[in-house]
Amino acid sequence: TDLTIYGNKMDWADAQNAAQNEIYNGQGGYLATITSADENLFIFNSYSPANSGNLDAWIGGSDAAVEGVWEWITGPETGINFFNGHMNSSNPVPGVYSNFHGSQPGWPPETQDYAGIMFNNVGSGGFWHDDVGNKLHPFVVEHPDVATMQSHQF
Predict the structure, then answer these.
(1) Using an 8 Å Cβ cutoff, are 89 and 62 in contact?
(2) Residue 85 CB: number of other CB atoms within 10 A?
(3) Contact at 8 Å (CB) between 68 and 62?
(4) Is 52 left (phi over 0), alpha (psi -120 to 50) or beta?
């Protein structure tokens, strides 16, 4: 897997379009689908702490189709349900990795339907959150079929 963290801020839809247009080894990318604790830690550690502040970066999860049913909607994991519910009523899907912060995802009727990974120094770094799709964040692009995990920052 090749992971690239783009520092330029975009809304979720524009970030996904930019990811698809980012060609690496002849393949378009997608907003990252984080399927293991190792991958999550790798992404978190790959983003320079000096640049992170309290930034969040878009990843490829959403509950826009059905409130409270979180699925990967990008890349080869499209359609995989990884989390159900909201804070205090959460039901991680057995055998499927997820890493929402204890206060996340928020309660309905919120329109926070898109997932991000948090980069900060206040104890929630590396955890996921939900946010409104029109908010501007950096984003993590993933390209499949790379022999080892590597990262880049732009």
Answers:
(1) no
(2) 15
(3) no
(4) alpha
Which pairing describes strands 150-153 and 137-143: parallel, antiparallel, or unpaired? unpaired
pLDDT 10s digits, 7-37? 889 999 999 999 999 888 788 899 999 999 9
Q: Where are the alpha helices (DSSP H) in 21-120?
A: 37-46, 49-52
Read off the pTM.
Answer: 0.88
Q: Is 111 exposed, middle or buried (0-12, 13-18, 19+ CB in 10 A)?
A: middle
> How far is 6 from 43, CA to CA, in rounded Å?
12
Q: Which residue has the tokens 């499949």?
A: 144
Tokens 């890493």, residue located:
99
- Residue whose entry in the numeric block shows the structure tokens 């990811």: 19
From CA 46, how far away is CA 4, in angstroms rounded?
9
